[in-house]
Amino acid sequence: MVFRRFWILMFIMAVFGSGFCVLEVWKAYESSFTKTIILSTSFPYAHTPFPSVTVCEASRVHNTIIKSLFQNASGRPGSYEEALFNMMTLLATIRLPLFGRFGQMKKWKAHFDELNKLNISDVLLQAVRPCDDIFDSPCWWRNRFYNCCELFELQKTCYGYCYSFNSDVSEYSRQKTLFYGMYGDNKDFWLDDKGLARPKRTGGYGPWSGLRFSMRAQKIAPYVDTNPGIVVMIRDPSALPTELGIRVSKGTSGYIRIWGDKVLPTRRLVRVKPEKRHCLYPDEKKYLGRGYLRSNCLFNCYERFMYHDCGCVPSFNYFLYKADFPYPECNLEGLVCLADHSTNLININDRDKNLSSDLRCQCPDDCHSQKYKSNIIVANETTSADQIVVDVFFQTSTCFLYETDIVFDFMNALGDVLNDIPA
Question: How many domains does the chain have?
């Protein structure tokens, strides 16, 4: 009887001891966090895509069209023609989410019924300056000259219609890049109609090693509120051009130097829940036709808030994908509504505390990322007062390569607890 009680007691102690060990293992596993270490201080840029380079003119409506609209409206105050002219001058310089100036269109409310019939995205597409009219000489890419319009493609941006180089989300390439690098596809490139790999890469660094182009600044009519020049945006090829960009004025040349580190996750990090690792992989969410990128997620927040406030989204800023663009396009009244809510759109992070959870802007970091930082050196090396020369290149041939991992996985935590048990 004594031995039986002894073994029962030992069994109970063993059960409690095992439970204690499992609890400690679980606590160690749950409290673990990610760490990032340096794998290499000289990772070649040749193994990473060259960034997309997006060029937006100061006025996204061709000067000849603005002049024609002005002539039609001259001497006809309060007319439909005057309302159309003023709408186009506002659209020429609009930038998301700064719609506030569209409140001026309320003065022509009598013509809203007719103006609302216009497809604003199509109107802007027809009014954009043709590619052949922008560049004044062949473009330089990786040691040879090309027809610029073979390198640059029409691109929807936060400024409206612009032209981009090496973008996975241009009007041309977005139809071909829906699945590459996602859903088990391990490729880091796709093929264009010529069979050439995209996104493009280069192993060189310094001036004349990347993309170089020259263009003529568009003349700006006095009734368009902007100054002659261009905006250049340097982005990840899969990222929508949504930033303020780098301003380059006419009569100047800009040398844009690029650098940035690469971050790779370990294989076991993907097994950790997203809310625990605080980052997302490209195939875990899809925004605007591409795999997850934090910058695209933030852009998508504007889309949801615009629909919440005004029931529409301006399609000259976004893609018309059936899967992730279920919202109506904004007509003129929709843009006026966005003007009324402009302050709320600018401060989306402050306002989402009072909204339902499905409207909150939650955009974790990217688990896998290549950073593209840039600055510009401006010189006066142009041959005429309206010329603009831009040279985009990597500052060095290599960057830092980082690896992100979890501090403990379950087996590490188990081993750590067992090591703490006295022999």
Answer: 2
Which secondary structure element, helix H or strand E, spans residue 23, and what is its range? helix 2-30
pLDDT tens-place string over residues 107-143: 999 999 999 999 999 999 999 999 999 999 999 999 9
Which tokens is 338 given?
Answer: 């966005």
- Residue 285 is part of which domain span? 44-403
Q: Report d(CA 209, CA 200) in Å as an integer.
A: 13
57 and 63 in contact (C-beta within 8 Å)?
no
The total number of residues written for the chain in this structure: 423
CATH number at residue 321: 2.60.470.10
Looking at beta carbons, which pairs linking 15-22 to residues 24 or more positions away fall under 8 Å? 21/417, 21/418, 21/421
β-sheet bridge partners, residue 22? none
Nearest to 301 by CA among 8, 47, 96, 139: 96
- How is residue 17 annotated by DSSP? H
Looking at the fold, whether 206 and 96 belong to one and the same domain comes out as yes
Inside any domain, residue 351 = yes
Strand 365-366 relative to strand 279-280, pairing: parallel
Is pTM, for the whole model, over 0.70?
yes
The answer on 158 and 139 residing in a single domain is yes
> Angle, to 10 degrees, between the axis of helix 332-340 and the axis of helix 294-310?
100
